[in-house]
Amino acid sequence: MNDTVDSDKSTKEKDKSESGLDEKLNKIVECFQTMTQEQTRMCRAFIQLAELQKKALESIIDYTKLHNLKSVHKCNASKQYFETSSIYLRKS
């Protein structure tokens, strides 16, 4: 009996949350439908700007990775030079 009551409560809460979600989605759809052409153009411009910013950030990340890789190679070369130098100095 208790399980049935709990089940009914959870079903009602789920229905309530889904109807709230439906209301929010309907408001969003209504908002998009009532937008003027100018507002639509502005939204598209903001989307394009966001896409350009994403591409720019990806380029910066790629450059940083490449730069760091070059730095690692330089560090390894310096390390090898010092190791070779220390071996040479020990021999002399």
Can you walk through the features of this model?
This protein is mostly helical. It has a domain at 52-92. It is 95% helix and 0% strand. The protein contains 2 helices and no strands. The chain has helices at residues 2-33, 37-91. The longest helix is centred in the C-terminal third of the chain and has 55 residues, at 37-91. It is elongated and about 85 Å long.
Which tags fit this structure?
single chain; elongated; 92 residues; mainly alpha; 2 helices
Condensed summary:
By secondary structure, the chain is mainly alpha-helical. It is built from two helices and no strands. The protein is elongated.
Structural class, from secondary structure content? mainly alpha
* Mean pLDDT across every amino acid position: 76
* Whole-angstrom Rg: 31 Å
The parts where pLDDT drops under 50 for at least 5 residues are none
Number of strands: 0
Helix content percent band? over 70%
How many alpha or pi helices?
2
Succession of helices and strands: HH
| Share of β-strand residues | under 5%
Give the terminus-to-terminus CA distance: 93 Å
Shape: elongated
